[in-house]
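Researcher: Please translate sequence to structure tokens.
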Amino acid sequence: MLQAPSQSSTSQKELLLHKITHVQAHIAVIGMGYVGLPLAACVAKIGFSVTGFDLNAERIAMLKQGKSYINDVSSDELAPLVRTGQLNAEMDFEQLRNADVIIICVPTPLTKNRDPDISFIQSAGEEIAKRLRPGQLITLESTTYPGTTEEILLPILEKSGLTVGEDFFIAHSPERVDPGNARYTTHNTNKVLGGHTEACSEVASAFYRKSILDVITVSSPSCAEMVKVFENTFRAVNIALVNELALLCDKMGLNVWEVVEAASTKPFGMMTFWPGPGVGGHCIPIDPFYLTWKAREYNFHTRFIELAGEINSYMPQFVREKVIRALGKQGKPLYGAKILLLGMAYKRDLGDWRQSPSLDLFNLLVSDNACTQYNDPHVPQIEDNLGQWHHSVPLTKESLAAVDCVIVATNHSAYDYHFIVEHSPIVVDTRNACASVLDQREKIVLL
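Model: Translation complete:
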């Protein structure tokens, strides 16, 4: 049987590396959402004892029963981990004392002024600092602006009196979760990390390599933070480019879907992005603004990024204009029109409607006094800008025929688009979801 190194003669780094190498470390994950739960399950599967922490009592109750509340982790794979005690759930942060590795996966939203809200990171840091002991690794996975780990989180932890790189270790390793992506999971998605010291990087790399196929170490936490916001800004800018192309094609009478599809046949120098009603989720609409906010500290104006944000934010307004034109051809105004919006989630086949452009469009139509309803098989209810709750209505031939216009806002695979076009008076298709529908094309209005 392998013996742990003697603490009297061995550094905290070596002690922790021994625990990690032999899968004896106890892992804590703070924030059991779309990032934290898949990570906790991935780590538990290889044999680590994992405790997930969350302030949401409903989530904790479900986890204790082995029930999942997100698509990327099924209850069938979660239940055995809970049943065997490999994965536990807690609201009591006192249990952090027992953890050897603590991973922070808390939300990082924007304020109303579009400034980063890192209060959840700060709160998590304070809870850890109260219980910080020698021999612990703390990694931050929450997406944030470059500098957060070393300028905000590290000083909070250093209030414990412990020395970073010797007594405890800290790194930033940004999440790369793509909800609903069955091909790329936590296990096989490359992981970037940057430690505050060489020892921090060594310990963090050893931990992540136990459960993730490929780990890329960069020079610092700030570099790792910049990698993440750049990845999402890259997507936001390219989506804005193709959305702007859609606006131009609309004026020129061209089919933007045909243009992009043909351009995508080029075997080099081309990466395909598709237009849509806007961008949603926690990453694309938010992360670029972390960078624009941080850039102001250096008296630098990120014009390109901010312009992309303006274009993407305008797209729900453009869809509204298409609806007005489509109704106008029927001799109907938007005021009082009956609208059925299909898909409230920000992404196909998900139940996540955070920052969804569908919600922005819904609120616009409601403010125009259109009689607006929605259907989404994955989103049973939503809250509008006025604090009113709306429920998904049934999708039947009667409900389709009873409205003046149907909007395909999210192209869920559960939808039968032939059925939708057949029974609707007109369909404004923002996703080219009706591409395979060959009959009654005159009813379909593309973005």
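Researcher: Any highlights?
Model: The first strand starts at residue 26 and ends at 30.
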